[in-house]
Amino acid sequence: MLGYKTICVLAVFLGVQGCVVAGPTIEQTLSLDQTVTGSIATPPTKADTVTESDRMIVRNAVSSADIASGSRRFAWSNPETGSSGVISDLNQFRDGENICRNFETSRQRFDGIALYRGRACTAGAGQWALLEFAKS
């Protein structure tokens, strides 16, 4: 004859077997309807806007970077907009009478991080102009 404890264990074991939840098989999951509808519109992407203030800060950082120092990275920051970044891949060349610098810079701000490529050249009397500045 079976003992009281054995009967209780068997009763619990047999009772728990009915509690198993069965889900769809892999084949059933793969055959689910994958139709995409247009009922939910995706939000439009915001155009990347770089403020004139950020452009001036980057221009100043590029023009004042001491290339002869051997440093390959130059930080910039704009307290007015909260933007900041690091100028890298900076190289200098002559374009006729002007000295120009090609560069790449990151820009971090509240809405994310972006990478830009640009070119700044002297415009006479020690002034520099940012001729190109576009998102990479």
Folded structure, characterized:
By secondary structure, the protein is an alpha+beta fold. The chain has a domain at 52-135. Helix content is 24%, strand content 36%. Strand 3 and strand 4 form a beta hairpin.
Short descriptors:
single chain; 136 residues; alpha+beta; 3 helices
What would you call the quaternary organization? single chain
Uncertain segments of ≥5 residues (pLDDT<50)? none
User: Major sheet, described briefly?
Assistant: 5 strands, antiparallel
Mean pLDDT: 82
The residue fraction in helices comes out at 10-25%
Strand order of the largest sheet: 1-2-3-4-5
Class per helix and strand makeup = alpha+beta
Shape by Cα distribution: elongated
Q: Give the number of DSSP strands.
A: 5
| H-E string | HHHEEEEE
Protein name: Surface antigen domain-containing protein
InterPro entries: Anti_2
Keywords: Signal
Signal peptide: 1-22
Summarize the structure.
This protein has helices at 4-17, 26-30, 52-64; strands spanning 74-78, 83-95, 98-109, 112-122, 128-135.
Secondary structure layout plus pairing:
Blueprint: H1 4-17, H2 26-30, H3 52-64, E1 74-78, E2 83-95, E3 98-109, E4 112-122, E5 128-135
Antiparallel strand pairs: 1-2, 2-3, 3-4, 4-5
